[in-house]
Structures are given as C-alpha cells and as structure tokens.
Amino acid sequence: MDEFLTIAQAARLIAARTISPLELTQHCLARIRRLDPVLHSFITVTEERALSDARAAQARQMAGSLRGPLDGIPIAHKDIYCTAGIPTTAHSQHLRGYVPTRDAAVVRKLAQAGCVLMGKLATHEFAFGGPAFDLPWPPARNPWNPEHFTGGSSSGTGAAVAAGLILGGTGSDTGGSIRSPAALCGITGIKPTYGLCSRAGVLPLAFSMDHAGPLAWTAEDCAMLLFAMAGPDEADPASAGRAAPDYLTALNDGIAGMRIGVVRHFHETDHPASAATQQGIAQAIEVFHALGARIAEVRLAPLQDYSDCGWLILLAEAFAVHEHWMQSGFEKYCAMLRDRVALGALLSAADYQQLMRRRRQLSLATAAAMKEVDLVLTACQPAEAPRIDAVPKWGILDKPSFTVPFNVTGQPAISICSGFGGGGLPVAIQLAGKPFEEATLLRAAHAFEKATQWRSRRPALAEAGLALSTGAKGEGVR
Fold it and tell me: What is the pLDDT of residues 47-103, one digit of tens each?
C-alpha cells in the first residue's frame, strides 16, 4: 500500500506491526531530503536523533510495550520550542548558535509519549517577522505552490505536514499563527484554550496571548497530539491547571443537535472574504446541517474591534519582550520584525490599561453572544494564499483579522480545510468553541472532515515525493 499516512493510520499500522517506526521515520527522512530543498520547512533536521528515537520505539513495538498511539510517530517542533542539546533559533540572527539545556514542557511530554523528533521547523522571526528574506534561513514555502505564502508564523509546521515530511508538529498562536498556516497549507490546526498547554520553554511573543498547540493533517490527529500536550504545569504562570480529557473518546459521536452559530458579518461585511472562501463556508454550513447540527446566526462585536484590541496588546507585549535587543541589536532583526515591534514603544501604560479593559468587555460580550450555541463558524483567512513576495509588511493593520478575536478572548479555535480556490490553493473555515470545550470543537471538525472529500487531496509537490511501502506489499515488520 503506497500512501500518505495520518497519525491515526500510522498508529494502527504500528500497533499491528504492519510497519515499523524505523521504516516510517526513514520514509519521512527521504521525503525531507527530496522536497525540503524547495520547501525550506526545516531549519534543523535531527536525523541521528530521529533514527535513535525510531529504533527505541521499534524495540517497544516488538516487545509489545508501546507507550500509546503516538509511539513511533515522526513529528517536529516549531523553532521557538526549546530542545535540549539541539539549536533553537527562533529563525533569528539573535539566537544563531543558541543551544538550550532543557526541553520545553510540551517537547518533553511528546517525547515521553514516544514521538520521533525529526527536527526544528521554520517560523517567522520570533513568531512575528515574516515572511522575511533578510534572515540567515529562507522562509518556508507552500507545498501547493512554492511561489505562495504558507501563512505564519508556524510556517514550517504547516508546510512540512502538508507535504508529508512529518505526520504532525507543534505551533504557537498569538494572533493566528497555528490557524493561518493550517488554512493556507490545507491542513488542520487547533489553538487550545489559553493556558491549557504549557508554554514553559517556548520563546514568548506576547505573554497574555501566546498559545501552544498542534498542527496535523486531520482533526483526529490534532486530538491525539493535544491530549499528549495539554495539562497543568507549575512552570507556566498562565497554566490553567487543567488535565486534558481523552479527546478521542467522543470523537465519532456525531454532531446531531449541536448548535452552530454563523458569524456572517465577520466574513461578509466586516472583511469580505474571497469567493472560494465564501463558497467553502456556505458548503460547510450545508454539511453541518445535513449531519444534524442546528444552524443559527450569531452577531458579535465588529471584527475591527477585536483586531485593533488584539494587535495593540500584541505590539505592547512584544516590545516588552524585545526592548533590550531593540535597543542594543536593532540591526540583527529582519526589517519586518523590527519595524512592527518598534510600534510597541509608542504605546503608553495608560494605553495598555485601556486595552485590557476593552479586552475584558469583548470577552464578556462574546461569552454572552455564545450562550445559546456550542460553536461559532466564520472564515479563517480572507482568501487563498498570496504570493510569498506579495505579503505586505503592514497587512496586520490594513484589514481586520479573522483569527485575532479568539486570541483576545482566549477561547479554543480550529482551522479546517473547506475546499480549494484559485490555482488549486486551499481555503478554510474556522470554528471557535467555549473555553475548555476542545472536545466539542474536535468532534465537529472530525465530523466535517469525514463527511467531505478534502482530506483525500494532497499537494502535487507532495505527491511527487517518495511513497511509503507498507506490509500490504510484504515489507512490513516481521
């Protein structure tokens, strides 16, 4: 059987000894060697570590002592996640040569689950400055068309998952940095509730808006990764202190009776989305209705209100993080990052306090508007991926963001592929749920993916890569 494997599929094959973790890892390494010179999704490939991890997982496989469904699964981390003994660069000249001595909490958890570490993935500089061409490493490219943008800032994760170089990976989301690359690269990415996943050991951008979360090909795969990643951590002051439920338990329970509110004014009037994006939303509504969901219309505050509040908070907090280097090593940043972050110096303490008050108002109003629904639905990105050389520096201020509202409120949100538009580039819908209701969010996303054909379509670039031979051809584990 020659195919791309999801995490769930690979886990079943590993459990059945149809393929080995080593075989799967070698397959992914071969794809990286073949495709990443075009995609630039990796900053560091940890081949020796990957093979060592895979051999250890294979030994557990043969001994009948697999640690769980993630044992032997090849993943990689966004290069703002600290990794002991492995460079962590944040895609920045400032951290070139930096090698942490400790793993980030999430890195440690996924290693304990048996994941195979393939390396560190490209990002926008410090998760904010990109795509940039004035850094030591080039920006990641979109596998659907390498001349186009991946979305950011978890750009390498989006590209590597879409191209089948890894089966899943980590991202961070401060204003949409998990959901944007998921949308533009045609994969699935979930921003959990603020504080659900520890950010200890993850380089910060804006402390009150940073979220850690997974990206993968499907909602089921994201559920598996999130279960391993989530949970309390005293090392993260913002940790919610909550243990994660098993998100797979009710994943196939269907969505009959689920109440989904469509925030039409976001994508129809506040920031009109492209025709393909609008079509994807309309068809998604039909799919959810056919699956038994109850569809209503929900009105929230204007999209611009959330966007202005969120971006200004981000700029103020990002400047606080980078103030020292902005003063002492301004020239080492890429132009996009230093120009953006410098705006934060213009915000006063009074401005920041007013932003906190406005954030609280928006969060309370959003919760009130969602009392009668389980989820809300809107666009994730305004259109298909633009050309990578046509991404404006000030795009964050030009039009309101569809993703920032749920960083402002801290509630969970997921991006799901909902079709394809111009040039065969993906479009997506965004679902947002109530705080700590990730299980509901994942169940709805999974139901949608199972009812549509979008998960069966892969980028042409990825299709041209190397195929994995499994036990169906007599090459599995003996």
Answer: 999 999 999 999 999 999 999 999 999 999 999 999 999 999 999 999 999 999 999
Q: What is the 3-state secondary structure (H, E, C) of 128-164?
A: CECCCCCCCCCCCCCCCCCCECCCCCCHHHHHHHHCC
Task: Write down the pTM of the prediction.
Answer: 0.96
Q: Looking at the annotation, which residues are catalytic?
A: 78, 153, 177
- Cβ of 346: how many Cβ atoms within 10 Å? 10
Check if the beta carbon of residue 90 is closer than 8 Å to that of residue 129: no
| CA 299 – CA 301 distance, rounded (Å) | 7
- Closest C-alpha to 107, from 85, 152, 76: 76
What is the distance between the alpha carbons of residues 83 and 75, in angstroms, rounded to a whole number?
Answer: 13
Answer yes or no: is pLDDT of 474 > 50.
Answer: no
Q: What is the pLDDT confidence band of residue 241, given thresholds at 50, 70 and 90? A: very high
Torsion angle, CA of 122/271/384/398, rounded to 10 degrees? -50
Domain 8-473 sits in CATH at 3.90.1300.10
Q: Can you read off the two tokens belonging to residue 435?
A: 């705080």
Helix (H) or strand (E) holding 25: helix 21-39
CA distances from 430 to 180, 263, 383 (A): 10, 10, 13
Extents of the domains making up the chain: 8-473
pLDDT at residue 188 greater than cutoff 60:
yes
CA pair distance 341, 360, nearest whole angstrom: 24
Dist CA 268 CA 278 (whole Å): 8
Predicted confidence band at 3 (pLDDT cuts at 50, 70, 90)?
low
